[in-house]
């Protein structure tokens, strides 16, 4: 039994971590922090957790908390994470960081898209926590940079194709659509029910901060630099990301060959499900689960491949993947505590 | 390990039974039937169950199926259930019937609201499967009549008050609101997305078939006959029922006394959560779980009590309660396999 | 051509007033105020109004604005309204006040439910602006108190029954359900998309401030004091209110008689549509329009009547009714500029 | 005053035509046909039209109907349209066909994507009814092929760029997202509320029948043949289409230059609104209106342009554009009867 801490427990990712950890047989949630809700139970912040996670949120100094947990999930905004992660590591704790602060290898790239980086010396040891691609590096890590939700949905479907040289890296376009929980639980007009429901919009066109993260990881898979077009959109639903990805094929591939490639690439993965030819995934079929479902289409008319992937942004795109990383870091079975069945309808 | 059959696996309740049973450590799903989807895997009917419930649906005669399962969940429409349940019982199988066919004690009442009853001789032994109220009778039963979704949401909050004579049985009004999954997966114009979304309506005003079921069970609790006003409504959401219930208090009661009564009445129940005074439940906080959450308000201005209860209509209102009943019937821990955490947001 | 001002143009009601007034042939929108958006065009606050209402919002003193408009729609919160309405009236302007400040005749009642009233001397001349009930008083008024959204939906269906003594005034229960736009455009966690969607809740049970307003107007119709039980609920939709109303009948009434009574009572009304026996209204059928649709059911089993009414809370429940009142005040045809057709789906 | 007929009045497009025509000062709706609802009033098929369109639906032979209307809106499925349009034309009626049957110039292309064409002789005279691009040809037409919803959303934003040679025609990718009303009012499991809500999916990836229509019209604008990648998606909302369109720029263009080009290209158009640089449209801002709103982004990192367009699929994507075409055909002001303001929220 290990003791886990959630730093930033009142956000949607924090609440989801509490939900998932409550089902984990080898973890006890020993610390939950929140500035706004200090002194309140998690079940007051999130009434669905009544009787399940009744731990009281606190706003104590990290120095004290490090004695009360073995592993820390930092579910805080970028810039906040880099201010606390070093102290956690130096105290001997493991950290799964759900912010963007340790995902970008090159601090200059980070600073071009975010702001100044004040913990550069930890970047080298931070491991990008996409277990299906990077499992062997995660195992021994003390600092795991949990991937962004959009990047998870874009990298997993492209990995087999890039590794096999099937697509031209300069032609990748990722058109992604996200549920509204990705925008967080902060009070803002833009995510009010009436602003979002029965509507659809693009946002941060060509400017979203997940772009360099995706490019960095795709470049590793392709073996060379690349740039992509990435457009996020807001869907009137709570959970889920669907990414539609386009790229030029480098040679003739038929549908069965492509489907087979994806299936064999991911055949041992518990959390990746490949659709049969002609089938495509939908976000409602992964809701509440750690799955990434992937479909593909060879379009011979245009010489392009179209990939469609879906995840639950709060699970495989955040809290679930974080627990998956924790399992790898701690030597547990990788799917331990993550065997939830998608909730449909 | 017992073997379970789902008769009518392609409806929403059938899919939900498959989801819940896949998480149950003492049950193997050995049979799933569907007329329309015979020959197809459950995961083709419900893609979210891919890798979780890949059993093939069939349309075999009951006589054959009785050899391949120990307990049958009949998730079929009323009238269909009464045609197959006798055969299952006579073959020595246990039955949890999710239809209305065995819920009404008096066949004349049943026939006044439904149609002719062709299995009257089994009514006497059928046990109304609301474990919190009727657990001791369920334990030895071979035929459990799983309650309707609306009745579950109305009976549980009223039970403590009726048993304690706190309200006038002739003044009960239940105004209930249900998510759209209650209307089933059949193709019909009335439940198309565009007909339901961003809208709200009442239906079957004063005529819904759950009325006599509610009245029957409330009468047992009150110790005398009664009639209620019951109005169901359709909410643009998938899952969830909220019932707002009004009744005249028979004497002065203060808020704390009422809250305490509800809390003590249900203090040992795993699946009933009573809100603190001033708090009220919401359907999104029980989504995907077997909970019934209840809040109450003493309105001294009018001398009435207002009760607000919520359930997930597919879980506590159908499949979850059916598995709870199975646990009681089979002597398992009552919450076995039902420890799912509500999914929010 | 008259000049109209919207005070508080950035709220949902303000935006809706701008939409409706843009279609009115006898009105020019000459002033729009907003503290938060001063200096911005209405079309920046509400992009749907681009090319339709490009007036610039301002935050000027009332004293200046009174020279630039003939009639003022005060779409501000209660307490704010009472601080500005006197000045507008004294400058000779007409006022349609959409707040609660001038709806309650008795300042003691107002103060029991709201807070201190600082413009008591204007209460006597304020006219309750429900034209179907009170048209003759509105015609000459300089201050119209535009009804609350819930009260509009409750008073209209009950008026014919109370006027004819068909129901016992002490038995009225109004169970109302509102779309989320009723909560306004302010940034708050409780009305975020993820908090509201796929969920349903009651709120302010037995404590909502529209209660005394409803009771006051029903008492006038009944000819005696009464109290009601009123419970509002939040529906995952933008627009619309549905009220389900219960009361004991004072004598035997059959369905046709009741339907006929409603139809004849409202036969000359352009904005009230009575459903045929057996039919009930739905909010999506009045979306975007000034209609109030009403259905009724005589429940002989319980001796109660059930009334179901629907309105668009932003139109008949706010901005549309305000323009209807303006038409009466200014002597225009009452439906001028309000002939919009409901938008479905 | 002209007399208009709606053939296929019970679909969502038929209902929307009735709504829009009811607001048109120069048109009387004289005929509405429906097989399934013959003998019923439009207001029974669509209760929101009660008191607005109470015409009775009929199922009479075309030969009789041609005497009772001057212009016919054929809102029927492809293949059905080609069976009736010739008779209408030969009887001297004007036809606005909302099906796909007369949109494709080349019958071989039509037959490759649809089925055999049985009215080929009318293809030459059919005019593609996108007024902003093709107004001069529509004016004298007796048969207008009303564009598909997706094509309208893709062609309008691309037209200025293709006409000016700013993009490489071989690099166009259109990723489109549609509300569920586009799937029609037929009863089918796939568009039930529970299947669609809180979910997102792609469909007909690389195979949608609007592809050749888009390619045909873009080719005319580009002055040469081209193929595009087109992927439609289903959004959990009723109305609206958003298309995100990618293409390689043929030369350096800056953001202001591109925005200016779009603004000047559409400066005289009443139904096209171009967003300022940095702004992007949303479907909720055109809901219920005939607008097409367009935003654009020059992405210098990738050398691509990203265009984002939105329409209401039932208005500018169907019934509204059809009435706009009728106005052009009949010599009315092009925006007559179409001055509805978008409904938000």
Question: Can you summarize this structure?
Answer:
With 345 residues, chain A is of the alpha/beta class. Chain A is 30% helix and 19% strand. Chain A has eleven helices and 13 strands.
What's the arrangement of secondary structure elements?
Four copies of one chain form a homotetramer.
Chain A: E1 2-7, H1 12-22, E2 27-33, H2 42-45, H3 62-65, E3 71-74, H4 80-90, E4 94-97, H5 107-113, E5 127-128, H6 131-138, E6 143-145, H7 149-163, E7 173-178, H8 193-196, E8 201-202, H9 210-222, E9 229-234, E10 241-248, H10 255-265, E11 272-274, E12 292-299, E13 304-311, H11 315-330
Parallel strand pairs in A: 1-2, 1-3, 3-4, 4-6, 5-6, 7-9, 11-12
Antiparallel strand pairs in A: 7-10, 8-9, 10-13, 12-13
Key traits:
homotetramer, 345 residues, Rossmann fold, seven-stranded mixed beta sheet, 11 helices, 13 strands
Please explain how this structure is put together:
The structure is a homotetramer of 345-residue chains. With 345 residues, chain A is an alpha/beta fold. Chain A folds into two domains: 2-125, Rossmann fold (3-Layer(aba) Sandwich), CATH 3.40.50; 150-313, Dihydrodipicolinate Reductase, domain 2 (2-Layer Sandwich), CATH 3.30.360.10. The first copy, chain A, has helices at 12-22, 42-45, 62-65, 80-90, 107-113, 131-138, 149-163, 193-196, 210-222, 255-265, 315-330; strands spanning 2-7, 27-33, 71-74, 94-97, 127-128, 143-145, 173-178, 201-202, 229-234, 241-248, 272-274, 292-299, 304-311. In chain A, α4 links the parallel β3 (71-74) and β4. In chain A, α1 (12-22) crosses α11 (315-330) and α7 runs parallel beside α9 (210-222). The longest helix of chain A is centred in the last third of the chain and has 16 residues, at 315-330. Chain A binds chain B through residues 12, 15, 19, 22-23, 46-52, 181, 197-198, 238-239, 273, 279, 281-282, 284-289, 293, 339-345, and chain B through 12, 15, 19, 22-23, 46-52, 181, 197-198, 238-239, 273, 279, 281-282, 284-289, 293, 339-345.
């Amino acid at each position: 039994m290990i003791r886990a801490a959630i730093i930033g427990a009142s956000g949607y990712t924090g609440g989801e971590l509490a939900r998932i950890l409550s089902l984990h047989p080898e973890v006890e949630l020993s610390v939950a922090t929140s500035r706004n809700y200090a002194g309140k139970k998690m079940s007051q912040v999130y009434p669905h957790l009544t009787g399940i996670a009744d731990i009281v949120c606190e706003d104590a100094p990290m120095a004290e908390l490090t004695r009360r947990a073995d592993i820390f999930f930092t579910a805080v905004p970028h810039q906040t994470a880099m201010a606390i992660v070093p102290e956690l590591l130096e105290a001997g704790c493991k950290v799964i960081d759900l912010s963007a602060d340790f995902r970008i290898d090159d601090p200059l790239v980070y600073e071009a898209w975010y702001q100044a980086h004040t913990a550069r010396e930890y970047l080298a040891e931070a491991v990008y926590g996409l277990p299906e691609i990077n499992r062997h590096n995660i195992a021994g890590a003390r600092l795991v940079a949990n991937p962004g939700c959009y990047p998870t949905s874009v990298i997993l479907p492209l990995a087999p194709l890039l590794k096999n040289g099937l697509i031209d890296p300069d032609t990748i376009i990722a058109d992604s659509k996200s549920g509204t929980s990705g925008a967080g639980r902060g009070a803002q007009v833009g995510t009010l029910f009436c602003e979002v429901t029965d509507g659809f919009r693009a946002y941060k066109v060509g400017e979203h901060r997940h772009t360099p993260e995706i490019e960095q990881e795709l470049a590793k898979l392709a073996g060379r630099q690349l740039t992509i077009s990435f457009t996020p959109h807001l869907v009137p639903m709570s959970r889920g990301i669907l990414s539609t990805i386009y790229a030029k094929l480098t040679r003739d591939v038929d549908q069965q060959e492509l489907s087979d490639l994806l299936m064999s690439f991911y055949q041992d993965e518990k959390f990746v499900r490949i659709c049969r030819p002609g089938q495509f995934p939908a976000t409602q079929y992964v809701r509440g689960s750690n799955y990434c479902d992937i479909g593909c289409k060879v379009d011979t008319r245009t010489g392009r491949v179209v990939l469609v992937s879906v995840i639950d942004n709060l699970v495989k795109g955040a809290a679930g993947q974080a627990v998956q990383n924790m399992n790898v870091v701690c030597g547990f079975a990788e799917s331990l505590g993550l065997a939830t069945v998608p909730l449909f309808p």
